[in-house]
Amino acid sequence: MTAVTGARPAGGPAGPARPRRGGGVRALWSGNVGAVVARNLRAARSSSGVVVLSGFFEPVFYLLALGYGLGSYVGTVTTPDGTEVPYAAFIAPALLAVSAMNGAVYDSTWNVFFKMHYGKLYDAMLSTSLGPLDVALGEILYALLRGGVYACGFLTVMQVMGLNLAPTAVLAVPAVLLVAFAFASVGMAVTSFMKTFQQMDWITFVMLPMFLFSATFYPLSVYSEVVQRIIQVLPLWHGVELVRGLTTGTAGVDALGHVAYYLALVVLGITATTLRLRSLFLD
């Protein structure tokens, strides 16, 4: 590890210094994002698939317990445009967005934290021709793959259960990939500032209220206007509304606003992650 990081062993000679890069695009990007993704895929083959399966089944259990259990008492729910849909069809797209979020966030936070502080993987990567943008995009795209797998699996479950109420439900696939991309980008950026496992608990502290209050299980209209404005700032709410509109056939012009919101998060997250990795490992 000394030869990679350039650290000085106690009482020994200095190891080789990390190569300095020139300025400009070449210092950030080598165009080899695929190497980072391929490395993660190879590593995933040797790990347990239990964690991956648990991430898929969790929203399915919520759907069965609440969508059909509690839904038998609730009946139908009225969407913002006045359309009445079965309760299971109302919460299923929200759980789909949550599934994409969870898959992306897990890989872009806890996994990245371990690689950064314990595995010292980024020290090794950035001592090669890879730039911080290669690493950022590679990690984010791998997290996107996981979020996409969760989402596509859950969307299939929805189709089997008859919960996709409109042909536009097929557009939920790219929608949830966009949701996963945004959460992975921001998640990795935030993780780059974390220094201890205790600080990582803040991620769960933020995700839990988003999951519960982003109109996931009931309409936004149950809240006061002030609370509604606060919830409408949360990233998950935009994903829930976007996916719900597509699966129920109620998507309107507002969907473009949700897409623009996530595109802005993607740009912000990737930019922040790239600059942070450069600051930590190259400057």
How would you describe this structure in keywords?
68% helix; 11 helices; 283 residues; mainly alpha; 2% strand; two-stranded antiparallel sheet
The number of distinct helices, counting runs of at least 4 residues, comes to 11
As a percent range, the share of strand residues is under 5%
Strand order of the largest sheet: 1-2
The largest β sheet comes out as:
2 strands, antiparallel
Shape: elongated
Indicate the radius of gyration in whole angstroms. 21 Å
Estimate the helix proportion, in percent.
55-70%
Helix-strand sequence: HHHEEHHHHHHHH
Count every beta strand, where a strand is a DSSP E run of 2 or more residues.
2
Mean pLDDT comes to 83
The N- and C-terminal alpha carbons lie at a distance of 19 Å
* Helix/sheet category: mainly alpha
Low-confidence stretches: 1-22
Number of domains: 1
